Amino acid sequence: MNEYDSNRILDLANKIDYTVTKELSEANCYILNTCHIREKATDKVYHDIGRLKKNFRNKVKPIVLVAGCVAQAEGDILLKKEKYIDAVIGPQSYHKINETILKLEKKFKSINMTEFDVVEKFDTLNNIKNLDNKVSSFLTIQEGCDKFCKFCVVPYTRGAEYSRSIEELIQEANQLVDNGAREINLLGQNVNAYNYREKKLSDVITAISKIKNLDRIRYTTSHPKDFTEDLIAVHKNCKKLMPMVHLPVQSGSNKILKSMNRNHTVEDYINVITKLKKTRPDIKFSSDFIIGYPGETFEDFKKTIELMNEVQFINSFSFIFSPRPGTPAFNLDEINQNDAKNRLTNFQLIAQKIKNNYRKKLINKKTKVLFENKMKIGNQYFGRDEYFNSVIVESNEDLTGKIKNIKILKGDHNSLYGEVASNINETNYAA
User: Which DSSP category does 57 fall into?
Assistant: First the structure.
């Protein structure tokens, strides 16, 4: 979502004659778009501003803005702690970025734009063409969260759930396809909580699937509680929807899930997985996990391992609990950090073993890959298969924007490597 927001900020800034530069030393205006999910992300703000100050020592200082969720959560603190920052702009206020920049050009000081006005934001953005021209593009359809998981800062930085109209989503999706997109990834803090005049995520998927030249649709991130029957059914009915679902579970222990205020059980989660597999047998899953949440015992941790082994997630994102200021979990007693680190290490070893075993089965199989760009090295092209695996192929043909049948030859920790196979209709595909 931050990548989507950053692209839209650039679309806005173009209207006041600012263009992107790849050379930091040329910048007149420096915008740092931020995340507040974990503490390290906040620390990076100060580190990045420190590097910026060194780069512009003995030079004319650029306008410096911090945008995004750190700006929303810690706006006044940022302005007081780091005088090099000229303004902070929250994620629901970045439609006012041009107004802010123009004020700073006139030497206004310490501007704090952190109001929650998501309706005005999207009303503004709907009148600014999305110029993103990537083969795989993001499209925000929903923002905010009403779930209030005790560890999560999103409701306090992004606000309440808000869904955009299907009409404006179709308009923007058409813009992206006209720009060259062949895949659209629908975004939301709780994307399957989308609800606009009784229209749901399944309706959005069905509507944009009718766009000519759009080949693939994905969505992220989902909440198990909002995985409705119509969304499960669309995985069978929409051939453009990829057979890969990112469905965060956070823990395999019902006790910890209740403590987190997740409002679902492990059994609820498995029920969704089972229904999706029955609807589309080739479907695969990835998930998020918080290890060492306050109150987690070794028995709770073992249940998380059991869930990992049962579902066989082909990808997972796991982190030690990071207490975020302002959340209910911030004041909870943390478990022993050595125990937490050991559990995370053990969990990630098991997760990597599952991933490696899955990838071994892909060797010498064929998979359909949508190529996104040419790499800097030789004639190598980067793309992703239907399961979001990174695939690299060497070819004399320009593969950008094309879906090719690829035979996988080998793989490493990050990517699969293959060669262009023959007819796209050949069997023996990877799954």
Answer: T
